[in-house]
Amino acid sequence: MITKLFQALSKTRKGIAGAFNTLLNQRVTPETLEMLEETLITADLGIHTTSGIIEVVKKNATINFIKAVRKHMLSILPEEIHELPDIPYVVLVVGVNGTGKTTTAAKLAHYYKSMGRSVILVGADTYRAAALEQLKIWSNRIGVRLVSSQFAKDPSAVIYDGIKAAQNDDSNIVVVDTAGRLHTHKNLMTELEKMKRTIVEKFKDYSVKTMITIDANLGQNSLFQAKEFSNYIDIDAAILTKMDGTAKGGIVFSLNRDLNIPVEFLGIGEDIGDFEIFDQEHYVNSVIGMSDD
């Protein structure tokens, strides 16, 4: 069955599967290995993952090496990390501008609601009025209450109000959309620390999870962004956005191997339902062109 993810990774798969097929149809030589290496780097698998795959191909050159490569790629990624959280629970959605963060927060809220949880959305982007308007539209569409403020300047205060509202409503998951920020804006980065501290200190019965939105098309730049964010706040998981049509689907491996940040969700389109749990086996199969069977 052709899934949305399989379709979304068509450009990534075209490059990688094409390179593998070239090696299968020709001899494994320094020239063809160099071609494979260039393809893997272009797809943003990263130096370490690429080197490992090259070694696997060398060791299995006389047989069909693709199964060995698949096994190696799966060994890099953790087993499925997703589980419905213990309640009550706060999810901080962080990231730079332009990564689809606000839409992703709405998709998360919709997902948790579809799994039977009672959810509140919190609009803690106190800098961008458009983000709040966008969240209002999404909250109405998915039937989730939105807590926000047009006048508050302190996002931690908005988060505080949101969690209080959740307590009053017996809502068990709070999804917080934070303002997009660059790592060079130190004041905005330290603001993230304050947000998490507010939750931990004021609401001791709430668990907190921080998820970073990563634009899959930005490749290694996204890796750098995630590293800088993790200097200020612990990142528990990543949500890859804008997966549809990306040629750089290998960023999953770099995030996990280089930063120990596992991918938990994938955004594979603009619709509210274009959002799925990261499945390592289906992902690897979709990248190299193998069936899940």
From TrEMBL:
Originating species: marine metagenome
Gene Ontology CC, one term: cytoplasm
Domain SRP54-type proteins GTP-binding: 262-275
Family matches, as Gene3D superfamilies: P-loop containing nucleotide triphosphate hydrolases, Signal recognition particle SRP54, nucleotide-binding domain
InterPro entries cross-referenced by the UniProt entry: AAA+_ATPase, P-loop_NTPase, Signal_recog_particl_SRP54_hlx, SR_rcpt_FtsY, SRP/SRP_N, SRP54_GTPase_dom, SRP54_N_sf
GTP-binding found in the keyword field: yes
Family statement drawn from the similarity comment of this UniProt entry: Belongs to the GTP-binding SRP family.
PROSITE patterns for the chain: SRP54
Protein name from the UniProt record: SRP54-type proteins GTP-binding domain-containing protein
Subcellular locations according to the entry: Cell membrane
Membrane topology, as annotated: Peripheral membrane protein
Pfam families linked: SRP54 (PF00448), SRP54_N (PF02881)
Keyword Translocase assigned: no
